[in-house]
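Appendix B. Chain record.
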Amino acid sequence: MRGFDVSPEFVVKIAPIFAPWIGNTRPTWNVLLDASTYVRSELGISQHAWGQACTVMGRVEAVVLLATIAARHEAGAIGSPGGVMRRMVELHQEGKLRLDRTLFGLADRLKGRVH
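Structure tokens predicted for this chain:
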């Protein structure tokens, strides 16, 4: 994720779809990983695509990828979350994925939200 220091709390802020699955506890990477099963299912992402992301990218980065896809889907910018996940995994394998840019953009959008 290059220069972006992402935390579990940031993941939940950009992708509130995780919130129902983490309970009242402060999120950890393991809690988010457990919640990812439900989140990916809600988004229509296959187990195979999710498993591939975890294998190729590592589990934490796959959770972050899932959160960015969920955030962009919620904003109406993504029509096929599963297809986007597969393509982003391909870009990662090619060394062309710039997830940090997406994260910086999502962080900027958070600054504009009314809490």
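Further analysis of this model is presented in Appendix C.
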